[in-house]
Amino acid sequence: MRLPARAVKTARAYDASARRAAAARRRTAVVDAAAARFAAEGYAGATVAAIAGDAGVSPETVYKTFGGKPGLVRAIWDRALAGRGPVHAEERSDAVSGTVDDPLVIIDTWARLSTEVAPLGTPVLLLVRDAAASDPGAAALLEELDAARLRRMTHNAKVIQRHLRPGLSVSAARDILFAVSAPGLYETLVMHQGWSLEDFAEFLRRTLAAQLLR
Q: Residue 159 and residue 212: Cα distance in Å, rounded?
């Protein structure tokens, strides 16, 4: 018996939606497994086969979806950049800077969002940083992630360009933002010295305001 065209179209739409949902669940499972393996065994020690086994998929699926360990790290980092809210952290940052003229409010937003992003992203960046000394793939990945962060800090410096203190160029402001957003700062103050996220955010607010603004 031949189904009516409308019924066939509805069934196909349902099947496509179900496949997309299943693919999203598999992707999340793989990224979760990769994050756990990297944290437990380091970048070099974790293998794609072990990550795939933890996620309940084949190694071929991991390679096809992510292209190997560098792609897994990118996926973990991209998820960290989104923060913990329902809207991507960078979108929330841009929404504030696009509607608010007070640079202190903008800097406060950056500091607050950093307390969402840094705890999620810093551990994996530190793993890649440590692996870069002996792994050419990790070194290339670290350079790629740093370049992306530098582009974002250039954007942020331009956002507050007209509020910069006299004599401070956009490129110098970018470099200050790049240094403050480096994983080593969070590693030193929060992971090693035990600062709270609130204290870390306040340090960022005060430091950026003092170094950047009139």
A: 12
